[in-house]
Amino acid sequence: MKLLVTGCCGFIGSNFVYYYLEKHKEAQIIGLDKLTYAGNLDNLSKLSDDQKKRFEFVRGDINNGELIEYLIEKYDIDVIVNFAAESHVDRSIYNPREFLETNVLGVQTLLDVVRKKWNKNGKWIEGKKFIQISTDEVYGTLGPSGKFTEKTPISPRSPYSASKASADLLVLAYHETYGMPVNITRCSNNYGPYQFPEKLIPLMILNALEHKNLPIYGDGRQIRDWIHVLDHCRAIDLVIEKGKVGEVYNVGADNEWENIKIVRKIIEILREFTKDEEINENLIKHVKDRPGHDRRYAIDSTKIQHELGWKPEITFEKGLRDTIKWYLDNKEWIEKIRSGEYRDWYEKHYVSE
Ligand code: NAD
Protein backbone atom coordinates (compact mmCIF):
# COMPACT_ATOMS: atom_id res chain seq x y z
CA MET A 1 0.00 0.00 0.00
CA LYS A 2 1.31 3.44 -0.93
CA LEU A 3 -0.01 6.39 1.00
CA LEU A 4 0.28 10.10 0.42
CA VAL A 5 0.08 11.64 3.89
CA THR A 6 -0.36 15.40 3.80
CA GLY A 7 0.46 17.41 6.93
CA CYS A 8 2.86 14.61 7.91
CA CYS A 9 5.01 16.92 10.05
CA GLY A 10 2.19 18.12 12.29
CA PHE A 11 1.01 16.54 15.52
CA ILE A 12 -1.42 13.85 14.30
CA GLY A 13 0.22 13.41 10.89
CA SER A 14 3.61 12.55 12.40
CA ASN A 15 2.09 10.16 14.94
CA PHE A 16 0.22 8.52 12.07
CA VAL A 17 3.39 8.05 10.01
CA TYR A 18 5.12 6.23 12.91
CA TYR A 19 2.03 4.18 13.66
CA TYR A 20 1.32 3.15 10.08
CA LEU A 21 4.87 2.23 9.08
CA GLU A 22 5.26 0.18 12.27
CA LYS A 23 1.96 -1.64 11.82
CA HIS A 24 2.19 -2.26 8.05
CA LYS A 25 5.65 -3.57 7.30
CA GLU A 26 5.20 -3.40 3.51
CA ALA A 27 3.64 0.05 3.43
CA GLN A 28 5.31 3.04 1.84
CA ILE A 29 4.47 6.62 2.75
CA ILE A 30 5.11 9.80 0.80
CA GLY A 31 4.78 12.62 3.31
CA LEU A 32 3.93 16.10 2.08
CA ASP A 33 4.05 19.15 4.30
CA LYS A 34 4.35 22.89 3.75
CA LEU A 35 6.22 23.20 7.09
CA THR A 36 4.20 26.08 8.47
CA TYR A 37 4.93 27.18 12.05
CA ALA A 38 3.10 23.99 13.15
CA GLY A 39 5.01 21.59 10.90
CA ASN A 40 8.29 20.29 12.17
CA LEU A 41 10.50 17.79 10.36
CA ASP A 42 12.07 16.90 13.72
CA ASN A 43 8.78 15.18 14.53
CA LEU A 44 9.87 12.41 12.18
CA SER A 45 13.49 12.16 13.30
CA LYS A 46 12.84 8.97 15.28
CA LEU A 47 11.94 6.81 12.28
CA SER A 48 13.85 3.51 12.40
CA ASP A 49 16.21 2.57 9.56
CA ASP A 50 13.59 0.27 8.10
CA GLN A 51 10.92 2.97 8.35
CA LYS A 52 13.20 5.54 6.71
CA LYS A 53 13.53 3.25 3.69
CA ARG A 54 9.76 3.30 3.31
CA PHE A 55 9.24 7.02 3.87
CA GLU A 56 9.93 9.95 1.62
CA PHE A 57 9.42 13.58 2.57
CA VAL A 58 8.41 16.28 0.13
CA ARG A 59 8.07 19.89 1.18
CA GLY A 60 5.04 21.40 -0.52
CA ASP A 61 1.60 22.90 -0.34
CA ILE A 62 -1.66 21.01 -0.87
CA ASN A 63 -2.68 23.98 -3.02
CA ASN A 64 0.03 23.01 -5.52
CA GLY A 65 -2.05 20.81 -7.82
CA GLU A 66 0.83 20.10 -10.21
CA LEU A 67 2.99 18.76 -7.40
CA ILE A 68 0.18 16.56 -6.05
CA GLU A 69 -0.47 15.23 -9.54
CA TYR A 70 3.20 14.47 -10.01
CA LEU A 71 3.38 12.60 -6.68
CA ILE A 72 0.25 10.54 -7.29
CA GLU A 73 1.60 9.48 -10.65
CA LYS A 74 5.26 8.95 -9.71
CA TYR A 75 4.49 6.80 -6.68
CA ASP A 76 1.23 5.28 -7.91
CA ILE A 77 -0.49 6.38 -4.70
CA ASP A 78 -3.33 4.17 -3.42
CA VAL A 79 -4.64 6.26 -0.55
CA ILE A 80 -4.41 9.94 0.34
CA VAL A 81 -4.84 10.84 4.00
CA ASN A 82 -5.26 14.58 4.36
CA PHE A 83 -4.11 15.92 7.73
CA ALA A 84 -2.81 19.21 6.27
CA ALA A 85 -4.64 22.12 7.84
CA GLU A 86 -4.44 25.29 9.79
CA SER A 87 -5.65 23.84 13.06
CA HIS A 88 -5.67 26.40 15.86
CA VAL A 89 -9.03 28.04 16.66
CA ASP A 90 -7.45 31.14 18.22
CA ARG A 91 -5.35 31.81 15.15
CA SER A 92 -8.46 31.44 12.97
CA ILE A 93 -10.08 34.25 14.92
CA TYR A 94 -7.17 36.57 14.13
CA ASN A 95 -6.56 35.46 10.55
CA PRO A 96 -9.44 33.50 8.97
CA ARG A 97 -8.16 33.80 5.41
CA GLU A 98 -5.22 31.40 5.84
CA PHE A 99 -7.73 28.87 7.13
CA LEU A 100 -9.85 29.10 4.02
CA GLU A 101 -6.80 28.89 1.77
CA THR A 102 -5.52 25.64 3.22
CA ASN A 103 -8.56 24.01 4.77
CA VAL A 104 -11.00 24.72 1.92
CA LEU A 105 -9.13 25.58 -1.27
CA GLY A 106 -6.35 23.14 -0.46
CA VAL A 107 -8.88 20.33 -0.10
CA GLN A 108 -10.60 21.34 -3.32
CA THR A 109 -7.22 21.22 -5.09
CA LEU A 110 -6.59 17.72 -3.74
CA LEU A 111 -10.06 16.57 -4.79
CA ASP A 112 -9.68 17.93 -8.32
CA VAL A 113 -6.32 16.22 -8.77
CA VAL A 114 -7.72 12.96 -7.41
CA ARG A 115 -10.59 13.18 -9.85
CA LYS A 116 -8.20 13.72 -12.72
CA LYS A 117 -5.77 10.93 -11.77
CA TRP A 118 -8.02 8.22 -10.35
CA ASN A 119 -10.96 8.46 -12.71
CA LYS A 120 -10.38 7.03 -16.16
CA ASN A 121 -13.19 7.46 -18.71
CA GLY A 122 -15.80 7.85 -16.00
CA LYS A 123 -14.60 4.81 -14.00
CA TRP A 124 -12.76 4.99 -10.69
CA ILE A 125 -9.62 2.90 -10.45
CA GLU A 126 -10.15 0.02 -7.96
CA GLY A 127 -8.71 0.29 -4.47
CA LYS A 128 -8.09 4.04 -4.38
CA LYS A 129 -9.39 6.20 -1.54
CA PHE A 130 -9.29 9.77 -0.28
CA ILE A 131 -9.53 10.18 3.51
CA GLN A 132 -10.32 13.62 4.92
CA ILE A 133 -9.32 14.09 8.56
CA SER A 134 -11.97 16.28 10.09
CA THR A 135 -13.07 17.27 13.56
CA ASP A 136 -16.03 17.12 15.93
CA GLU A 137 -15.88 20.93 15.97
CA VAL A 138 -17.88 20.98 12.71
CA TYR A 139 -20.97 20.04 14.76
CA GLY A 140 -20.79 23.20 16.86
CA THR A 141 -21.52 23.17 20.56
CA LEU A 142 -23.62 21.02 22.91
CA GLY A 143 -25.69 21.75 26.00
CA PRO A 144 -25.14 19.75 29.17
CA SER A 145 -26.43 16.50 27.65
CA GLY A 146 -26.39 14.62 24.34
CA LYS A 147 -23.59 13.69 21.96
CA PHE A 148 -22.68 14.37 18.36
CA THR A 149 -23.56 11.53 16.01
CA GLU A 150 -22.75 11.47 12.29
CA LYS A 151 -26.35 12.64 11.73
CA THR A 152 -26.01 15.76 13.89
CA PRO A 153 -26.38 18.79 11.59
CA ILE A 154 -23.17 20.64 10.88
CA SER A 155 -23.16 23.98 12.71
CA PRO A 156 -19.62 25.39 12.99
CA ARG A 157 -19.07 28.48 15.15
CA SER A 158 -15.44 29.50 14.59
CA PRO A 159 -13.59 30.34 11.35
CA TYR A 160 -11.54 27.16 11.94
CA SER A 161 -14.56 24.87 12.28
CA ALA A 162 -16.36 26.66 9.43
CA SER A 163 -13.38 25.95 7.18
CA LYS A 164 -13.27 22.28 8.22
CA ALA A 165 -17.05 21.96 7.74
CA SER A 166 -16.75 23.49 4.27
CA ALA A 167 -14.10 20.93 3.37
CA ASP A 168 -16.30 18.10 4.64
CA LEU A 169 -19.19 19.31 2.48
CA LEU A 170 -16.90 19.50 -0.56
CA VAL A 171 -15.59 15.98 0.04
CA LEU A 172 -19.14 14.62 0.36
CA ALA A 173 -20.22 16.60 -2.72
CA TYR A 174 -17.40 15.05 -4.78
CA HIS A 175 -18.61 11.65 -3.65
CA GLU A 176 -22.23 12.39 -4.59
CA THR A 177 -21.44 14.20 -7.85
CA TYR A 178 -18.54 12.18 -9.23
CA GLY A 179 -18.73 8.97 -7.19
CA MET A 180 -15.31 9.72 -5.68
CA PRO A 181 -14.20 7.06 -3.16
CA VAL A 182 -13.92 9.06 0.05
CA ASN A 183 -14.24 8.78 3.80
CA ILE A 184 -14.31 11.46 6.46
CA THR A 185 -13.28 10.96 10.08
CA ARG A 186 -14.48 13.43 12.71
CA CYS A 187 -12.47 13.02 15.85
CA SER A 188 -12.60 14.69 19.23
CA ASN A 189 -9.67 16.50 20.91
CA ASN A 190 -6.39 14.59 20.56
CA TYR A 191 -3.49 14.60 23.00
CA GLY A 192 -0.12 12.86 22.94
CA PRO A 193 3.51 13.39 21.91
CA TYR A 194 4.56 15.98 19.33
CA GLN A 195 1.58 18.26 19.93
CA PHE A 196 2.41 21.90 19.26
CA PRO A 197 2.59 23.87 22.54
CA GLU A 198 -0.19 26.30 21.66
CA LYS A 199 -2.78 23.57 22.38
CA LEU A 200 -4.23 23.11 25.88
CA ILE A 201 -2.39 20.08 27.26
CA PRO A 202 1.20 20.84 26.10
CA LEU A 203 0.72 24.55 26.85
CA MET A 204 -0.19 23.79 30.45
CA ILE A 205 2.60 21.23 30.90
CA LEU A 206 5.28 23.52 29.51
CA ASN A 207 4.11 26.68 31.28
CA ALA A 208 3.85 24.85 34.61
CA LEU A 209 7.39 23.50 34.24
CA GLU A 210 8.61 27.09 33.88
CA HIS A 211 6.33 28.34 36.71
CA LYS A 212 4.52 30.57 34.23
CA ASN A 213 0.82 31.43 34.42
CA LEU A 214 -1.58 28.76 33.25
CA PRO A 215 -4.07 30.82 31.18
CA ILE A 216 -7.61 29.43 31.33
CA TYR A 217 -10.37 30.88 29.19
CA GLY A 218 -13.32 32.22 31.22
CA ASP A 219 -14.51 29.95 34.02
CA GLY A 220 -12.60 26.98 32.57
CA ARG A 221 -15.71 24.84 32.67
CA GLN A 222 -15.80 24.22 28.89
CA ILE A 223 -15.95 20.49 28.26
CA ARG A 224 -13.86 18.62 25.72
CA ASP A 225 -13.85 14.91 24.90
CA TRP A 226 -10.21 13.69 24.89
CA ILE A 227 -8.64 10.83 22.95
CA HIS A 228 -5.05 9.64 22.73
CA VAL A 229 -3.62 10.34 19.28
CA LEU A 230 -2.71 6.65 18.77
CA ASP A 231 -6.32 5.60 19.30
CA HIS A 232 -7.21 8.13 16.58
CA CYS A 233 -4.49 6.69 14.30
CA ARG A 234 -5.86 3.18 14.76
CA ALA A 235 -9.31 4.44 13.80
CA ILE A 236 -7.96 6.05 10.62
CA ASP A 237 -6.16 2.81 9.75
CA LEU A 238 -9.44 0.89 10.04
CA VAL A 239 -11.28 3.46 7.95
CA ILE A 240 -8.65 3.12 5.21
CA GLU A 241 -9.00 -0.64 5.29
CA LYS A 242 -12.70 -1.18 5.89
CA GLY A 243 -14.54 2.15 5.81
CA LYS A 244 -17.56 2.07 3.53
CA VAL A 245 -17.03 4.51 0.68
CA GLY A 246 -18.87 7.83 1.11
CA GLU A 247 -19.29 7.41 4.89
CA VAL A 248 -18.41 9.70 7.77
CA TYR A 249 -17.06 8.14 10.99
CA ASN A 250 -17.02 9.88 14.35
CA VAL A 251 -14.07 8.96 16.57
CA GLY A 252 -14.02 9.59 20.31
CA ALA A 253 -13.11 7.86 23.54
CA ASP A 254 -16.05 8.84 25.79
CA ASN A 255 -13.77 10.91 27.95
CA GLU A 256 -15.27 14.28 28.79
CA TRP A 257 -13.30 16.71 30.94
CA GLU A 258 -13.73 20.31 31.97
CA ASN A 259 -10.64 22.30 30.94
CA ILE A 260 -10.01 23.42 34.51
CA LYS A 261 -10.06 19.82 35.77
CA ILE A 262 -7.51 18.76 33.16
CA VAL A 263 -5.23 21.58 34.26
CA ARG A 264 -5.54 20.50 37.90
CA LYS A 265 -4.78 16.91 36.86
CA ILE A 266 -1.69 18.03 34.92
CA ILE A 267 -0.47 19.97 37.97
CA GLU A 268 -0.99 16.89 40.16
CA ILE A 269 0.95 14.56 37.83
CA LEU A 270 3.73 17.09 37.25
CA ARG A 271 4.12 17.60 41.00
CA GLU A 272 4.42 13.84 41.46
CA PHE A 273 7.03 13.51 38.67
CA THR A 274 9.14 16.58 39.45
CA LYS A 275 8.58 17.04 43.24
CA ASP A 276 8.54 20.76 42.38
CA GLU A 277 6.40 22.54 45.02
CA GLU A 278 6.15 25.66 42.88
CA ILE A 279 3.98 23.80 40.42
CA ASN A 280 0.63 24.38 42.08
CA GLU A 281 -2.83 25.81 41.49
CA ASN A 282 -1.70 29.37 42.20
CA LEU A 283 -0.31 29.37 38.67
CA ILE A 284 -3.83 29.16 37.21
CA LYS A 285 -4.94 32.47 35.73
CA HIS A 286 -8.43 32.99 34.32
CA VAL A 287 -8.31 35.13 31.17
CA LYS A 288 -11.05 36.69 29.04
CA ASP A 289 -13.02 33.95 27.29
CA ARG A 290 -12.46 33.19 23.62
CA PRO A 291 -15.22 34.79 21.48
CA GLY A 292 -17.77 32.21 20.32
CA HIS A 293 -16.17 29.60 22.58
CA ASP A 294 -17.98 26.28 22.21
CA ARG A 295 -19.17 25.08 25.59
CA ARG A 296 -19.20 21.34 25.26
CA TYR A 297 -18.17 18.66 22.78
CA ALA A 298 -18.99 14.99 23.17
CA ILE A 299 -18.69 12.39 20.46
CA ASP A 300 -20.83 9.30 19.91
CA SER A 301 -18.55 6.79 18.18
CA THR A 302 -21.03 3.89 18.12
CA LYS A 303 -20.90 3.69 14.32
CA ILE A 304 -17.15 3.07 13.98
CA GLN A 305 -17.28 0.71 16.96
CA HIS A 306 -20.11 -1.39 15.48
CA GLU A 307 -19.24 -1.22 11.79
CA LEU A 308 -15.43 -1.36 11.88
CA GLY A 309 -14.75 -2.93 15.28
CA TRP A 310 -12.75 0.02 16.62
CA LYS A 311 -12.53 0.90 20.27
CA PRO A 312 -10.18 3.13 22.23
CA GLU A 313 -7.39 1.27 24.04
CA ILE A 314 -5.53 3.95 25.96
CA THR A 315 -7.06 5.17 29.23
CA PHE A 316 -6.82 8.89 29.92
CA GLU A 317 -4.95 8.30 33.18
CA LYS A 318 -2.19 6.33 31.44
CA GLY A 319 -2.20 8.40 28.23
CA LEU A 320 -1.86 11.68 30.10
CA ARG A 321 0.93 10.39 32.34
CA ASP A 322 2.83 9.05 29.29
CA THR A 323 2.33 12.33 27.46
CA ILE A 324 3.63 14.39 30.38
CA LYS A 325 6.59 12.05 30.67
CA TRP A 326 7.26 12.50 26.94
CA TYR A 327 7.39 16.29 27.31
CA LEU A 328 9.73 15.93 30.31
CA ASP A 329 12.02 13.68 28.27
CA ASN A 330 12.06 15.83 25.12
CA LYS A 331 13.24 19.23 26.27
CA GLU A 332 15.31 19.80 23.14
CA TRP A 333 12.30 19.36 20.88
CA ILE A 334 10.37 21.82 23.05
CA GLU A 335 13.12 24.44 23.05
CA LYS A 336 13.33 24.46 19.27
CA ILE A 337 9.57 24.70 18.90
CA ARG A 338 9.14 27.44 21.48
CA SER A 339 11.59 29.82 19.89
CA GLY A 340 10.90 32.12 16.94
CA GLU A 341 7.45 32.48 15.47
CA TYR A 342 5.62 30.69 18.25
CA ARG A 343 7.14 32.78 21.03
CA ASP A 344 6.24 36.03 19.20
CA TRP A 345 2.67 34.87 18.69
CA TYR A 346 2.25 33.64 22.25
CA GLU A 347 3.58 36.87 23.72
CA LYS A 348 1.40 39.01 21.49
CA HIS A 349 -1.81 37.14 22.22
CA TYR A 350 -1.45 35.74 25.72
CA VAL A 351 1.09 37.89 27.50
CA SER A 352 0.68 41.46 26.28
CA GLU A 353 -3.16 41.51 26.38
P1 NAD B 1 -1.11 20.55 13.21
O1 NAD B 1 -1.39 22.01 13.13
O2 NAD B 1 -0.24 20.03 14.29
O3 NAD B 1 -0.51 20.04 11.83
C1 NAD B 1 -0.92 20.50 10.58
C2 NAD B 1 0.18 20.22 9.57
O4 NAD B 1 -0.28 20.62 8.28
C3 NAD B 1 1.48 20.99 9.84
O5 NAD B 1 2.57 20.11 9.74
C4 NAD B 1 1.52 22.04 8.74
O6 NAD B 1 2.84 22.41 8.36
C5 NAD B 1 0.79 21.33 7.62
N1 NAD B 1 0.18 22.26 6.67
C6 NAD B 1 -0.54 23.39 6.95
N2 NAD B 1 -0.93 23.97 5.80
C7 NAD B 1 -0.46 23.20 4.78
C8 NAD B 1 -0.57 23.27 3.37
N3 NAD B 1 -1.22 24.27 2.77
N4 NAD B 1 0.00 22.30 2.62
C9 NAD B 1 0.68 21.27 3.22
N5 NAD B 1 0.83 21.17 4.57
C10 NAD B 1 0.25 22.11 5.33
O7 NAD B 1 -2.56 19.86 13.27
P2 NAD B 1 -3.00 18.47 13.93
O8 NAD B 1 -3.44 18.73 15.32
O9 NAD B 1 -1.98 17.44 13.64
O10 NAD B 1 -4.30 18.18 13.07
C11 NAD B 1 -4.22 17.43 11.85
C12 NAD B 1 -5.62 17.34 11.25
O11 NAD B 1 -6.49 16.71 12.19
C13 NAD B 1 -6.24 18.71 10.95
O12 NAD B 1 -6.92 18.61 9.73
C14 NAD B 1 -7.20 18.94 12.09
O13 NAD B 1 -8.30 19.71 11.65
C15 NAD B 1 -7.63 17.51 12.41
N6 NAD B 1 -8.04 17.28 13.81
C16 NAD B 1 -7.23 17.66 14.85
C17 NAD B 1 -7.62 17.38 16.14
C18 NAD B 1 -6.74 17.74 17.32
O14 NAD B 1 -7.18 17.60 18.48
N7 NAD B 1 -5.50 18.14 17.13
C19 NAD B 1 -8.83 16.73 16.40
C20 NAD B 1 -9.63 16.35 15.31
C21 NAD B 1 -9.21 16.63 14.02
TrEMBL record:
<dbReference type="GO" id="GO:0009225">
    <property type="term" value="P:nucleotide-sugar metabolic process"/>
</dbReference>
<dbReference type="Pfam" id="PF16363">
    <property type="entry name" value="GDP_Man_Dehyd"/>
</dbReference>
<dbReference type="InterPro" id="IPR016040">
    <property type="entry name" value="NAD(P)-bd_dom"/>
</dbReference>
<comment type="similarity">
    <text>Belongs to the NAD(P)-dependent epimerase/dehydratase family. dTDP-glucose dehydratase subfamily.</text>
</comment>
<dbReference type="InterPro" id="IPR036291">
    <property type="entry name" value="NAD(P)-bd_dom_sf"/>
</dbReference>
<keyword id="KW-0456">Lyase</keyword>
<feature type="domain" description="NAD(P)-binding">
    <location>
        <begin position="4"/>
        <end position="323"/>
    </location>
</feature>
<protein>
    <recommendedName>
        <fullName>dTDP-glucose 4,6-dehydratase</fullName>
        <ecNumber>4.2.1.46</ecNumber>
    </recommendedName>
</protein>
<dbReference type="GO" id="GO:0008460">
    <property type="term" value="F:dTDP-glucose 4,6-dehydratase activity"/>
</dbReference>
<dbReference type="InterPro" id="IPR005888">
    <property type="entry name" value="dTDP_Gluc_deHydtase"/>
</dbReference>
<keyword id="KW-0520">NAD</keyword>
